[in-house]
Amino acid sequence: MYGRLTGRRLPFLNKAPEEGLKVSALCGGRNGLYLEGSICGIHCLMLVDTGANVTLVRTDLAQKLKGNFIYTAPNISLKTATGEKAEIHGKLDAAIECGSRKFQHKIYVADITDPCILGLDFLQKFNFMVDLEKNEIRTGGEEIPLFSASAEDSKLCSVLAKEKTIIPARSECLIQGVPEASGKFRYAVTDFPSQVSQKGVLVAATL
């Protein structure tokens, strides 16, 4: 599970992270709770894992960051509650943005599935409180919403043409569209070609 702490401060960590790096899992999956944030200016989803004693960033994302990379001793690995292992490549002194605040913190670079895992070291250092009842995390008087990536919380949304458009046979064109359930969801994922203006919707060739 990814957190059983409701309305109380997170416990103090007695051991240095290098003595035993651990997380609940390499991926939050259906049970994970996430928040939207950024690391060194790069937007990403962050898994809040109160079962982790270390904060991590995925290797491919770390390569894009302009942080100060610190090499760690060889043969340091990350362990999960189920016995899985992942290689640790080093550490980064990174600026982590959650809500409206920025925090400077050293994070480990590892072969994890999620872009970032926020562990107890980060949550306790900056006095975060996790409230599972309200699905939010609080710090400095600010309430940051958490959301689940579970299938039951995910919704499909149709995109409708903004205005009636006649498309000739064997042709393609760009038209503007609007989500059918506009205003009824908070997060959306779309696969959009980078070379096409995001003001329109790409329509496949008609038959």
TrEMBL record:
GO terms for molecular function: aspartic-type endopeptidase activity. SUPFAM superfamilies: Acid proteases. Gene3D superfamilies: Acid Proteases. GO terms for biological process: proteolysis. This is Peptidase A2 domain-containing protein.
